[in-house]
Amino acid sequence: MPWIVIVVIGTGIVTALWTLRRRALLVTVDGLSMEPTLLHGQRVLVWRTRRRLVRVGRLAVLAPPESAARRRPLLVKRLVALPGEPVPDEFAAAPGLLDGRVPADGLFVVGDNRAGSSDSRDLGPFPLAGLVGVVWFRVGVDPAIAPVQRRDADRHAG
């Protein structure tokens, strides 16, 4: 009987590790655009997703739009507006919007360090197809692993 318990527990651990490997990604922050939330060189655990976990205020990891693709392979930005949603008035002059709304295939994202970020304010909405996932945890922060806090105020504040 004890060997059955060991097999069941072992199978559970293997399944959990396999799922984590397929669904999670460890990303190192490169640059200052997300300060003070994320610092240059800090690592974050990203949960790969398409739309299920995508909410305004969350941090997203995205492939850059074609116009910025040569600069960085992946970008970490804060979601400000989802497909079809209006953007806050302060961003209404951004390129690529349709009557102040994000196109059906786009995401409006900005860096927390507005002065040091190249984002949807300059490049227009990022392609929804380029969404890799959402930031789940910061790694290497006191304490060693810390959840990323959602900033609801970012939906309307600058």
From TrEMBL:
What is an example of a Pfam family matching this protein?
Peptidase_S26
Indicate the segments forming the Peptidase S26 domain, all copies: 3-87, 100-138
Catalyses: Cleavage of hydrophobic, N-terminal signal or leader sequences from secreted and periplasmic proteins
Q: What topology does it adopt in the membrane?
A: Single-pass type II membrane protein
| Protein's UniProt keywords contain Isomerase | no
Q: Is Protease tagged as a keyword?
A: yes
Its localization reads: Cell membrane
Reported EC number(s) for this entry are 3.4.21.89
Q: Which SUPFAM superfamilies match?
A: LexA/Signal peptidase
What residues make up the catalytic site?
Answer: 33, 77
A GO molecular function term, named singly, is: signal peptidase activity
Query: Keywords assigned by UniProt?
Result: Hydrolase, Protease
Q: Which GO terms describe its biological process?
A: signal peptide processing
Cellular component (GO) terms are: plasma membrane
The family line of this record is:
Belongs to the peptidase S26 family.
Protein name listed in UniProt? signal peptidase I
